[in-house]
Amino acid sequence: MPRMLYADVIVDISIENLDRTYQYKIPPEMETKVKVGTPVVIPFGKGNRKINGYVVGVTENPKYDKSRLKNIEDVPDKAISATQVLISLACWMKEYYGSTMNDAIKTTMPVRRKIKEMTHKRVVLKADDESAKELYVNLCGKKNAAARVRLLRELIQTKQLDYEYVRKNLNISNATLKSLSEQGIIYIESTRLYRTPFTDAGLPDKEIALNVEQKKAVEAITAGYYTHTYKPFLLHGVTGSGKTEVYMSVIEKVIADNRQVIMLIPEIALTYQTMQRFYRRFKDRVSILNSKMSAGERYDQYERIRKGETDIVIGPRSALFVPFDKIGLIIIDEEHEDSYKSEMPPKYHAREVAEQLARLHNAVLLMGSATPSVDTYYRTRPDYPGEDKVTRYELTERTGSAFLPDVKIIDMREEIKKKNYSMLSVPLYNKILERLDRKEQVMLFINRRGYTGFVSCRNCGESIKCPNCDISLTIHHTKSKDKMVCHLCGYETDTVVRCPKCSSSYIGGFGVGTQKVEEMVRNTFPQAKVLRMDADTTSGKGGHEKILTAFANREADILIGTQMIVKGHDFPFVTLVGILAADMTLHISDFRASEKTFELLVQAAGRAGRGSLKGEVIVQTYKPEHYAIVCAEAQDYKAFYEQEIAYRKIMKYPPVSNMMTLFISSDSEKLSADIMNVSFNTANDIIRTRKDTVLVGPAPHPVFKANNMYRYLLHIKSNNIIILKGIRRAVENAVEKGFLGYKYVMQFDMQ
Ligand code: ADP
Ligand code: ZN
Ligand code: ZN
Predict the structure, then answer these.
(1) CB–CB of 751/654 below 8 Å?
(2) Euclidean distance between CA atoms 107 and 86, whole angstroms
(3) Tell me: the pLDDT tens digits for 352-386?
(4) Domain 5-108 class, CATH top level
(5) Mutate to test the pocket of ligand 1, among 239, 243, 244 (most ligand atoms within 8 A of CB)
(6) What is the pLDDT of residues 600-653, one digit of tens each?
(7) Which of 33, 65, 97, 119 is a good FRET partner for 203, with 20 to 30 A between their CA atoms?
């Protein structure tokens, strides 16, 4: 018997439960046309009503009795639509990330609530002058005509009036307006207003002649684009080397060829300056999306995109899902950024999704970074084995007069030996003083907000922990009083004056939090004006923008901040960047800890000396011998990469091998442990005979108890991603069967 294929079809993408699909037979003559994402016409229900649907899966093994399945009626011959691509993308995400169809489609095609349109309505005189005057004269003095007289008197003079004015000030009812327009005396005109957040696109664009390296990159990427096949590129260049100019040149070529462009930028880096650059070059052909926009603003941008009024969309990771039907280029700026990874199911990585989207559109994928992710760089090496090799171009110099800064490492252990217990080493202190004298600016950078701002007792060494989570509370100073807060679950309590354990009064907050650094800096340099930027000072619309603008306008001498200050603005007067406790991220329990540390140090250094003044960077550390720190000092990405990839090879970590993490959590310690046991045994049975796959763990999560949930992890490493997917399915089945009716969370995460 010939092979028969069956299609899973969803019939309505707006309904709640998208995991509900219907199965149909694919007639042999349609086989080549029906793929995931294809729109089809199907007979539906008892009356075999013809309705439209989308194929979300194709299989040889139907779930139902074959004889009772109906045939797909038709495959409309239409050009590929945006919806079709977004459905295929959702199907791919479901498969790749192991999410539900529901979550996947809700991500790629979120229901965009219609917001009241902002329209400008006017009442316009339609009748000619003479008939209007005639009517006016006739109406004057008549009973019940006062309103019409009022309106006509004004309309005859001005020809048109603001609708609101007519309704409120002239007090004309809707009924009156309706009857007048039915008589052909007036009409109501509404013009749609788009809530465009920026309006200074009129400013002239800067003329820039690309340098040799930029030209080479633009030419190669453009040539790649004209092949109209999927082509991935990496643009590796330090901050300020002119990557954005390269992006803009390639964008010009692509939109001139009538195709569309999506450019992802981490939200934090999407500054006013960047937006202006794009508006100036591309005028109103650009749409910019960000999460701080009002729902109305966002809706309007989507409307413009849907109507084809823009060719270029710039935004955070969700900008991938705009309804474009002919994408030619997807750019991911700062491709190493963590914010490209979604924390909500399906926990997708925008880089992976962008790659898939570019494949679906036969488009170019252009990734750019000063510190490319090890994952991406690995794929650019000449010996890379896969077929998904990435072509790399480098920009090695900063443009114009800007130089790379000098980076100096300070060993904080030496400072302690010299009895300096301050957060500031002597060299950093001296250099800050120098800058203040010269009226130059300083940025002080702390790795993670409040991470070590914990409260501990110097007598017994105990720290005060969150009762829900297994982590230390952090001191927060507010205007009214100080509080201790849990950064994981938000638990809050008053500060204490005595240790709850030993009653000693030698208790307090130690370590470095942004607030503490600010306090110390203000005390040490009373002459300086200081700004602080972290999640606490930047909540609300435009919060970080305000602080950065103030600093860019030199309203302060010193800016203190977390990761956030690493991105964004050019500060030509910043000549010193100080990194306090550079090694803090080296202690996080993640195989990417070194990569993250190196990246932060280089990105922070990139902030110094962006103008014509030479910049200097001071890195304070307790681990000066660590290669992440040594290579950051030399600003040597390749040296770092070589050491890092060697470590990943030995440890079988990505990108050399695949790694999947299973996360189990529930409110019972025993239940979590039991589920983890079943998972482990199931996985172990599968890999028993395989040399290419290993299990690591199970282990308690680094924060074992959070929000009153007990959490376990199991890592599975394999050269073979198919095996990992098989393990995922088997574990899911076993746990679903074994723990029916229990409440728990189970998640798989591709690392
Ligand atoms: P990146 O994106 O790598 O940080 P940009 O493209 O923002 O770099 O360039 C940094 C600065 O240098 C910008 O002000 C830009 O206008 C300018 N610039 C870029 N390329 C050139 C060039 N070829 N000649 C002169 N100035 C340039
Ligand atoms: Zn104590
Ligand atoms: Zn907590």
Answers:
(1) yes
(2) 10
(3) 999 999 999 999 999 999 999 999 999 999 888 77
(4) alpha beta
(5) 244
(6) 888 877 777 666 677 888 998 877 888 999 999 888 999 999 999 998 888 788
(7) 119
Tens of pLDDT, residue by residue over 324-351, are: 989 999 999 999 998 898 888 788 999 9
Domain 406-451+512-650 has CATH 3.40.50.300: yes
**Number of helical H runs and strand E runs in the chain:** 21, 29
Strand partners, 54: 10, 39
Coil vs helix vs strand at 265 = coil
Name residues with Cβ closer than 5 Å to ligand 2, which is an ion.
457, 459-460, 499, 501-502, 504
- Same fold? 212-395, 406-451+512-650: yes
Task: Determine the length of the chain.
Answer: 751
CB atoms within 10 A of CB 639: 13
State in Å: Cα 110 to ligand 2 middle.
Answer: 52
Q: Which ligand is nearest to the CA of 570?
A: 1
pLDDT digits (tens, 9 = 90+) for 74-100: 888 776 778 888 988 998 998 888 888
Contacts of 65 (CB under 8 A, 6+ apart): none
Q: Rounded mean pLDDT of 725-734?
A: 91
Q: Which ligand is nearest to the CA of 395?
A: 1
CA-nearest residue, atom 9 of ligand 1: 242
Give residue 507 CA to ligand 2 midpoint distance, Å. Answer: 7
**Which string of DSSP letters, residue by residue, matches 638-658?**
HHHHHHHHHHHHHHT-TTTSE
Protein residues whose CB sits closer than 6 Å to any atom of ligand 1: 208-211, 214, 237, 239-245, 399-400
Model confidence at 260: pLDDT above 70: yes
Cα separation, 683 vs 693, in Å, equals: 10
Return the pLDDT at 451: 43
The residue type found at 159 is K
314 pLDDT more than 90? yes
What single-letter DSSP state applies at residue 114? P
Among 206, 245, 397, the mutation site with the greatest number of ligand 1 atoms within 8 A of its Cβ is 245
- Distances, alpha carbon 569 to alpha carbons 445, 566, 594, 739, in Å: 15, 9, 26, 52
What are the domain boundaries of the chain?
A: 5-108, 118-193, 212-395, 406-451+512-650, 453-510, 658-750
- CB burial readout 511-546, b (16+ within 10 A) else e: bbbbbbbbebbeeebeebebbbbbebbbeeeeebbe
CATH superfamily for domain 658-750? Ribosomal protein S10 (3.30.70.600)
Strand bridging mode 49-59 / 5-10: antiparallel
Q: Specify the residue with its C-alpha closest to ligand 1, atom 5.
A: 242
Closest CA to 372 of 170, 641, 646: 641
- Evaluate if residue 429 carries a pLDDT over 60: yes
Collapsing DSSP to helix, strand or coil, 355 comes out as helix
Residue 415 pLDDT: 80
- The amino acid at 446: I
Question: Of 687, 690, 661, 691, which Cα lies nearest the Cα of 676?
Answer: 661
Count Cβ atoms below 10 Å from residue 671 Cβ, excluding itself: 17
Structure confidence at residue 255 as a pLDDT band (50, 70, 90): very high
- Count CB-CB contacts under 10 A for residue 593: 16
Cα(670) to ligand 3 centroid in Å equals 20
Q: Is the pLDDT of residue 304 over 80?
A: yes
Residue linked to tokens 């680094």: 702
Mean pLDDT rounded to a whole number for the chain: 83
The pTM of this model reads 0.77
According to the model, what pLDDT value does residue 36 have? Answer: 82
The per-residue pLDDT for 730 is 92
Q: Which of 647, 563, 609, 724 is nearest to 238 (CA)?
A: 609
CA 437 → CA 525, 608, 682, distances in Å? 11, 18, 67
pLDDT band of residue 511 (cuts 50, 70, 90) is low
If one looks up domain 212-395 in CATH, what number appears? 3.40.50.300
DSSP letter at 285 equals: G
